[in-house]
Amino acid sequence: MPARALVACAAVLGAATTAAAALAAASPSGFSDGVAAGEMTPTSAKLWTRAPRAGKVMLTVTGAGATRTFVLTARRASDLTVQRSVSGLRPGASYRYSFAQGAARSRVGRFETAPAPGAAARVRFAVSGDADATPGPNGKPGFNGFETYGAMARARNDFAVNLGDTIYSDSGVGGTPVARTVAQKWAKYRLGLGLEPLRRLRSSTGLYSGWDDHEFVNDFSRAEHGAAIYRAGVKAFLDYTPASYSGRTGGYRTFRWGKNLELFLLDGRSFRSAKATAACGGDIAPTAPAAVRQAFAALAPALAQPVPQACLDALASPQRTLLGAAQLAAFTKAIRASTATFKVVLNPEPLLQLYALPYDRWEGYAAERARVLDVLRSVRNVVVLTTDMHAHVIGEIRTDTFAPGGPVGTGIWEVVTGPVATNTYAKEIDSFLGAPGSGAVVTGAFLRPAPPRGLGLRCAQTDAYGYAQVTVTPTTLTVQPRTATGRAVLDATGVPCAPLVLRAT
Ligand SMILES: [Fe+2]
Known about the structure:
- By secondary structure, the protein is α+β, with helices and mostly antiparallel strands.
- It folds into two domains: 4-112, Purple acid phosphatase-like, N-terminal (Immunoglobulin-like), CATH 2.60.40.380; 122-503, Purple Acid Phosphatase, chain A, domain 2 (4-Layer Sandwich).
- The chain is built from 13 helices and 21 strands.
- Strands 12-13-14-15-17-16-18 form a seven-stranded mixed β-sheet, with helices on one face.
- The protein is globular, with a radius of gyration of 23 Å.
- It starts with a helix and ends with a strand.
- The structure holds fe (ii) ion.
- Residues 130, 165, 214, 388, 390, 422 line the site of fe (ii) ion (FE2).
């Protein structure tokens, strides 16, 4: 460490005799946006805070019998956020960290490093996403106080995953201006961090984070919305999130957690083609068979009309991509080469066939969806965990739900979870159809009943906040949908959703 940095260290730590003592004595003051850890590997992690003012910030990291300090610089160009990748850590170990600037001390954060790839460790983690902190007319958050993040923190996991729509640039709270610039998006991240449950989650455990569309704008693609809002979204996200990014594969990353688990975090936004909505005239369910369309024509009269062939051709066009060629190639290679017992694909938009408004999901990119399903079928012990739908559902991913001889499945299961705080799927259907209660009707009459009447999803709760709790052992992977209070999610039929259990083969 250079001499000037040492002096700076001494100045910010004040009279504390050791860095460890300073850590223990730290009481949160002045670092009002909290702290966070991300990108945990067996030997490294990225640590984050937002300083009270521009200038030097001290980072102290303690664990595995050692304390290390680092000097960082908070700049207005990053909205006073600072981050530092810390390496040389011990695998499968617990660490504590905190920041200091002048007399100000941050709260103490904790994280665990991933176990070494050969370690047969049991791993527990929670996943959710879709969190809008935008206040309503009364000044309170428009949806809720992020209680789901609080429940995820209380679950004392090895890590957590915040899987997209970590802000809402365009809020579901009526009358809110769209955040398009870096500064406007920074303000959205600060709104979220103004809620204690998110600060508590970020300080209580390490967090892998990804983006979906609302970090940019609703249903975002660069092809449709341009480079400027993409650049603003990337910068604001990376300023406020300890995550990493590359121009070639975007936010795609993989993380190994011991012998039993590898995570594959997909980026569904950086490289996707424009959606096919225009060719379909906005049809609500263009790929649903005629009989299903007819059955729901009472709810949505346009379903009685036939679907133009140009629409079906556009949805199925092999020219259109969701991941982009480089990311798809990297993902294919990595998951096929993985030696982890279980492979968890963290997927920002559902792969399930849901039929209603397929444009922004994998169903709207049918050719690449088929390619990805081929890849997943070539790998053993894989599960897909997803957000975006604003509902809790569990189902087998199918290539044709309404095939004449019965559904054609892939043997790959998907658990869709969330939201943390936004309009639920049921409320979105209500407002789309202009009829309160129609979300519940669609859930009970279409999502749950077995084909050919409905989708036959194993669990469907479309009007509850929450997350998915995952436990991985050497022989099983279990996913339990949980509500914002930590209880098991109740299915549309009123009974708790049974967990999805995968047994290693
Ligand atoms: Fe969302």
